Amino acid sequence: MKTLSITASLFLALTAVSCAGTQSEPAGGDFARYVDPFIGTGDHGHVFLGANVPFGMVQLGPSQRVKGWDWCSGYHYSDTTLLGFSHTHLSGTGIGDLGDLLMLPTINPADTMATFSHLRETCTPGYYKVTLDDDITAELTATTRTGMHRYSFPAGTDTAFVKVDLGYGIGWDRPVETSLTLDNDSNISGYRYSSGWAKDQKMYFTAQFSKPIAGSVIDSTATGTVATLAFVNDEAPLLVKVGLSPVSIDNAVANLMYENSDSDFDFVAREAREAWNSELSKIDVETSSLSDKHKFYTALYHTMFAPATFSDVNGDYRGADGMVYNTGGDFTNYTIFSLWDTYRAAHPLSTIIHSDIQSDYAGTFQEIYRRQGKLPVWHLHGNETDCMIGNPGVIVLGDLLLKGFVTDTIAAYEAMKASCMLDERSLDALKKYGYIPYDIEGGEENVAKGLEYAIADNAVAKVAALLGYSDDAEYFAQRAKSYGNYFDPATGFMRGKSVAGEFRDEVFNPFATTHRADDYCEGNGWQYAWLVPHDPHGLISLFGSEERFVAKLDSLFTVEGSLGDEASPDISGLIGQYAHGNEPSHHTVYLYNYAGQPWKAAPLLRHIMNELYNDDMAGLCGNEDVGQMSAWYVLSSMGLYQVEPTGGKFVIGSPIFDKASVNVGDGKVFEIIARNNSGENIYVQSALLNGEPYGKSFIDYRDIMAGGSLQLTMGPEPSTTFGVNSDARP
Known about the structure:
Blueprint: H1 8-19, E1 61-63, E2 81-82, E3 84-86, E4 102-106, E5 114-124, E6 127-132, E7 137-142, E8 146-152, E9 159-165, E10 174-184, E11 187-195, E12 201-209, E13 215-221, E14 224-232, E15 238-245, H2 249-260, H3 265-280, E16 283-286, H4 290-302, E17 308-309, E18 316-318, E19 324-326, E20 334-335, E21 337-338, H5 339-342, H6 346-353, H7 358-372, E22 378-380, E23 383-384, H8 392-402, H9 409-420, H10 427-433, H11 446-467, H12 470-480, E24 487-488, E25 493-494, H13 525-528, H14 536-542, H15 546-556, E26 574-575, E27 578-579, H16 591-594, H17 601-611, H18 628-638, E28 640-642, E29 649-652, E30 659-665, E31 668-675, E32 683-689, E33 692-693, E34 698-700, H19 701-705, E35 708-715
Parallel strand pairs: 31-35
Antiparallel strand pairs: 1-3, 2-5, 4-9, 5-6, 6-7, 7-8, 8-15, 9-14, 10-11, 11-12, 12-15, 13-14, 16-30, 17-20, 18-19, 21-22, 22-23, 24-25, 26-27, 28-29, 29-34, 30-31, 32-33, 32-35
């Protein structure tokens, strides 16, 4: 795909002959050739770089010494040193963790790190390669639960070494207990228990070497076990096959035997690429812009790093209570749920193109509830981190239920309701006051918490109504409207309110923000004025008229003011005060559709897609956040976005592709066709759904999943009819 001695622009030029034009990819085509895994490894993207397969347990890639916030994935493009290659990573998070089982090939047993040049580094889906400055070449590939290394040492070197470090961890991760055993002359096994963001993480491993271990030194200290293994260096590369399990060494062996027992490296790498092609081919886009295609398939690739498989081939997994359970073959258990981020676009996208695994997500959610008494908030390797705010697991499970992916709807509803009726994380104050006062213990981020809880309450209300629980439906529908308690009509902003029901008495500055210590969460008053995606028409009514609402929304994209010295670094990708680099803003542009002015969204959407996403190392304007930033691009570039988090109403925006053919499963394809589309023709003029005139500026999930086509005629001027009338609005 791409070797980094070739610049991004030259790479595009070299591949233009085979890629340019508006032809779709042939059936079974190599979609992986459009992916550049280095996009987002610079600036603040925090994406994982390395070898993995879609939704795999193993994320095998280079790990560097963590030098700050930008190393949350363990790798940053600004750095040309590495400590080795570890088997688990996060992608796009704002906190570092994992990094289990670090391996460093070396010709000097005293070395603890290596240096390299990006000119000798390559990565494509399922494969990573780097030649280190001491001329050792390391190649990596993976299956779902195993990793595979191929090390080629320089000729003339008699002895090669591999250092296996169980002490290394990314970010907050620190080892608690480690063990490594030489099972025979070519196999090691052990475990690593650690604590960090995930307070109680356990990972077991086995590793098979293609050559006998000629000598070994194993050091166990308080900072973890480190083994230095020696091998005779002959002409053949050294192969290392590694199996992982969150349950036991025996299960790690079983995972390795099942997925990677007799395979050679090249076969595994080809299979990994085919696994990626199988998933990437679910959306076939047509465009004359290779850059847009490059961005699109890289974004689609990034959406499939997580959730990650977290059960072994025999169905065993470690539950949220630390105990071992078995799926009984009913579902695959998953982990790495960055739900405060991903409920907005990543999960809705997944319900369209990965319908086959949605019931597994629902099963995982319900199993987490059984073990910890609430649905997941931010789940990481069997641990509830309680990171971020709200009840996003309730939102996602509600969406899955309303879309038909939940079998035991009663049990799912009980989990949703129970999670919203707890007394933790300011829910007790919400139940008592109808909002969360700022002047109580835990009152920081009160506005953001309250707005997020209202979104989850709306999900409960919708499911309760569907299942016939009318009293519950009414109760949670009222709670879903609690966002109105924060609205200050005098300023037009959501503001903190005291126990006595008064807004904060100091001078209100909607620009200034203090990270995690004021009324908002990673945002300011301007950004949080719009966080009512579950009830946009109710939000509009708070402003008194559509005209006032639209005027205020217009101002969001033009006003300038200082965020202050204590602002969150997550507030990035600014257009005025709209912050595309952080998730609370992601639905905001699409609110124009609810006010009957969808044309106002078009130039903003095109600006975001063209300017805030690009095809170089700093290709993202904020943290990837486990696929959310990329999922926004995937959906928006096709012309759709699910604003209301629960239920499946997709708002029509401004597609950049001439055609997107989406495989929605069961042999059905949904096509989104943009006729007369160009950089100037950005406004939808009219639409046809399955050949019939369609005047609405939204489409239902069920219409998408039925297959068919949505044809949008584009033009250079705003339409005075499309999506304008009240019955045409979402």
